[in-house]
Design goal:
This protein is mainly beta. 5% of the residues lie in helices and 45% in strands. It is rod-shaped, with a radius of gyration of 37 Å.
Length: 368
């Protein structure tokens, strides 16, 4: 149960990922070991789990599961000691009462050494760090470590920056890298309290949402994940990609809201045409001189209505009636013709022979 080693450590509470790169190891005995260790205490005989390499170099994980008990190695779990070259990356992961040991030649591809080892009721705070052991007394060992890190479950990241791009119809998100994180998950919702939908999981620190809802606030959160799991999300951040109609209102009224002077039903310039119709017909809502109302004419025995179909995002409905009563209007055509061109719709009923003939056409525009 006695220990013969030099131990540089830090007390750590909770789950942890301990990683280091062992650059070199020299030992006068040949049986010394170097590596990383998580111990219950900093005193001799403590329970511990270690990822170790001895001169040769040969690697295995070591465990002491009972205070002052014998050390068990990964061969106890039917895994032979493996020859590995320096420099060598080593890692220990503590989750609750379970510890896993890993080796890697490049710090990217990791191999677990033996199965996970579960201890009996580990305390919340353990001692995690680096060690070098000369083996038998009277010998010496020298180890060089670099890139040593201790990470717990990722904290909540700062909220990402969200920038609408009207030219592409996308919202661009960007954030700072969070130390100890492997991937990031972006979630989207239409309200600050959700429900949330995952839109991407990425190793990058930026994401472009190419198909966000348009014309309403969109909310995003960001969370980070590592080998211990996914951490808590950031505070929600919102962005809004204005619809074409909202952008038009912003340009002409200084607001994107369908309210007050900018409301669809308002006739701001007093020319007898509502703001929504001004938008649909391609005229200026603040200039009474800018008028392009639908026109009617007779072709043969049928009435026609002509207008400019200026926009792709509103619905144009031409309706007909014989007496103007509220329930008498029936649709003749929906979104006729081509956007950007003048459209003519012909009635499907001949004008009656009564004098004067009574037949009416109108254009109704439905906002998106």
């Amino acid at each position: 149960g006695n220990d013969n080693l030099t131990f540089a450590f830090r007390a750590w509470t909770g789950d942890v990922i301990l990683t280091s790169r062992i650059v070199s190891f020299a030992n006068s005995d040949g049986n010394g070991r170097v590596g990383i260790v998580i111990r219950e205490t900093d005193t001799a005989g403590s329970r511990y789990a270690a990822t170790t390499i001895k001169q040769g170099p040969q690697a295995r994980s070591l465990f002491r599961v009972v205070t002052n008990g014998n050390t068990l190695d990964s061969t106890y779990f039917a895994t032979a000691e493996v020859a590995r070259t320096f420099p060598q990356w080593v890692r220990l992961i503590r989750q609750g009462d379970t510890v896993r040991s890993y080796f890697s030649a490049d710090g990217v591809t990791w191999t677990q050494d033996g199965p996970s080892r579960t201890f009996t009721t580990l305390p919340a705070t353990l001692y995690a760090g680096l060690f070098s052991s000369p083996g038998r007394g009277g010998n010496t060992s020298t180890a060089v470590f670099e890139n040593t890190t201790l990470h717990g479950l990722p904290a909540a990241p700062a909220s990402p920056a969200a920038t609408p791009n009207p030219a592409t119809g996308a919202i661009q998100l960007a954030w700072s890298a969070l130390q100890g994180s492997d991937t990031y998950t972006v979630r989207r919702a239409l309200a600050a309290d959700g429900p949330w939908t995952v839109v991407t999981t990425t190793t990058a620190t930026a994401f472009t949402d190419v198909s966000p809802p348009v014309g309403q606030p969109v909310f995003y959160t960001l969370s980070a994940t590592n080998l211990l799991g996914e951490g808590p999300p950031s505070a929600p951040i919102s962005a809004q990609l204005l619809s074409a109609l909202q952008s038009w209102r912003q340009t002409h009224f200084g607001t994107s809201a369908n309210a007050g002077s900018a409301a669809n039903a308002t006739d701001f310039d007093g020319d007898g045409v509502s703001n929504l119709l001004e938008y649909a017909l391609g005229t200026l809502p603040a200039s009474a001189a800018s008028v392009s109302v639908p026109t009617s004419q007779v072709s043969g025995l049928r009435l026609q209505l002509s207008f400019l179909r200026a926009r792709p995002d509103v619905t144009y409905v031409v309706e007909a009636s014989s007496d103007l009563s509220p329930g008498s209007w029936t649709p003749l055509a929906t979104d006729p013709g081509t956007v950007g061109q003048s459209v003519t719709v012909t009635d499907t009923v001949d004008l009656p022979t009564a004098n004067p003939p009574r037949r009416f056409l109108r254009l109704r525009v439905i906002a998106p």
